[in-house]
Amino acid sequence: MEVIAKDKNLAKTIMSFTRSTLLHIGYKGRKSTAGNLAILFSPSDFGGGKAYEFSVHHLIEVVSEKEVYKIW
């Protein structure tokens, strides 16, 4: 999961809450309460620093990706 927020503390809070909720949430057919996530890193939550950058590609209307990206 990735969380982008207005400050680091808010991002950490949202990540912690979401991870904990998904780890222990119940669902139909569940056979175990040991967890529902595969966590690849230890510690599971870490800050990546400033990562978000606005991209003009969000504003471009295209018919085909070939108009914007070079396809090899």
List the helices and strands and how they pair.
Elements: H1 8-24
Q: What is the typical, i.e. mean, pLDDT?
A: 80
Counting DSSP H or I runs of 4 or more residues, the number of helices is 1
Count of beta strands: 0
How much of the sequence lies in strands comes to under 5%
Regions with pLDDT < 50 over 5+ consecutive residues? none
The N- to C-terminal Cα distance equals 31 Å
Topology as H/E string? Answer: H
- Shape field: extended
Characterize the largest beta sheet: strand count, sense, and whether it forms a barrel: none
The proportion of residues forming helix, as a percent range, comes to 10-25%
Specify the structural class.
mainly alpha
Rg result = 18 Å
Number of domains: 1
Question: Which descriptors apply to this entry?
Answer:
72 residues, mainly alpha, 1 helix, 0% strand, extended
Structure description:
- This protein has 72 residues and is mainly alpha-helical.
- It has one domain.
- Helix content is 24%, strand content 0%.
- It contains 1 helix and no strands.
- The protein has one helix at 8-24.
- The longest helix is centred in the first third of the chain and has 17 residues, at 8-24.
- 0% of the residues are buried.
